[in-house]
Amino acid sequence: MASLRGMDLNLLLVFEALYDTRSVSRAGARLGLSQSATSHALARLRETCRDELFLRVASGMTPTPVANRIFPEIHRALEALRHSVEEARGFDPATSTRRFEVAIPHPMGPVYALRLRDAALAVAPGVRLRFDTRTLADDAHGLMREGMLDLAVDWIPAEDERFVNKRLFVDSLVIAARRAHPRAHKGMGWKELAQEEFIRCHRRAPERRPKALSGRLWDLMAESRLTVSEYLEVPFVISRTDYLGVLPKSMARIAEEDFRMIVTGVPGPPIHIPIWLVWHEARRRDAGHAWLRALVARETQAAAAEAGLVPTMATAAQ
Q: Where do you find CATH 3.40.190.10 in the chain?
């Protein structure tokens, strides 16, 4: 972008709003500006950058290659500035307008995300939480180092010494089948399970996989002819077939009550899978981040307790 000397830095806020909303009217509404004032600001931006930045299309406005190239840096700079000003004033959830990015690769990620959204809205209506629930979010630790992701609720702890891992609760594994399955029943043994066909999920790369996810059960699943992307797809499929599926215990109640399934334990000793709250230590003194950690810990632990799992961490606000 051109030199900032003499430039009204409020134009950067207009650029960000235009990029997010793809609309002059919506960008103006976000910033409290009239449509005329927003259009005037866009004209000044175009003159400064010597590029159209946004082109009109049937659905609104689309960014040019130049706008796409400069947006990430401008967005990060504005977020850093917002964070600095917020921290200088102290963090007040009731008035804060901070944005937080949360990754929840746990299979119950979408459910936890909705619960966190509602809990935050009740006490911090201006705070914006954005969630990523991809099972294969293996770039999460790199994003946390760069400050682009605030924390993660994951099956995998971070090994880098600069990360903080706090255990939230311990999940385990169960086996589910549709209620009308001709052979499935509670208390199935290995011999009976070996006669069945399983649906399975894509697994993370070996170095990013819980060590508990191995052994005899996974040997049975190795030859599965049906592999899906997410655990939330498993109940949908097995409710309509004679496949068996492996689910985390945190999903057992959904399988039994919403999908009316038979749920049985895995033969032998329970397969325990700790669930971690992971964040970079650079955020330790960040009051807003401490609020977020406490919120995530409280709500995920409450959800785990409702699912019959025992929370293992008193607070995440350290």
A: 99-168+275-306, 169-273
Helix axis angle for 10-21 and 35-49, nearest 10°, is 100
CATH topology of domain 99-168+275-306: D-Maltodextrin-Binding Protein; domain 2 (3.40.190)
Mean pLDDT for the chain? 86
Q: Provide the greatest CA pair distance for the chain.
A: 77
Highest CATH level, class, for 10-89: mainly alpha
Q: How confident is the model at residue 314 (pLDDT cuts 50, 70, 90)?
A: very low
Q: Is the pTM of this model over 0.90?
A: no
Residue span(s) of the chain under CATH 1.10.10.10 come to 10-89
Bridge partners, residue 276, by sequence:
154, 167
Cα dihedral 302, 306, 308, 310, rounded to 10, equals 10
Digit-coded pLDDT (tens) for 164-188: 999 999 999 999 999 999 999 999 9
Copy the structure tokens of residue 213.
């996810």
CATH architecture of residue range(s) 169-273: 3-Layer(aba) Sandwich (3.40)
Task: Provide the percentage of residues in the chain whose pLDDT is more than 70.
Answer: 89
Mean pLDDT of 77-93: 77
DSSP 256: I
Both structure tokens of 164: 């903080």
Phi-psi region of 60 (alpha: psi -120 to 50; beta: other; left: phi over 0): left
Per-residue burial over 271-293, b = 16 or more CB atoms within 10 Å of its CB, e = otherwise:
bebbbbbbbbeebeebebbbbbb
Q: What is the pLDDT of residues 3-22, one digit of tens each?
A: 556 577 789 999 999 998 99
CA proximity to 15, closest of 32, 28, 6, 34: 28
Cα 34-35-38 angle, rounded to 5 deg: 90
Query: Phi-psi category of 33—alpha, beta or left, where left has phi over 0 and alpha has psi -120 to 50?
Result: beta
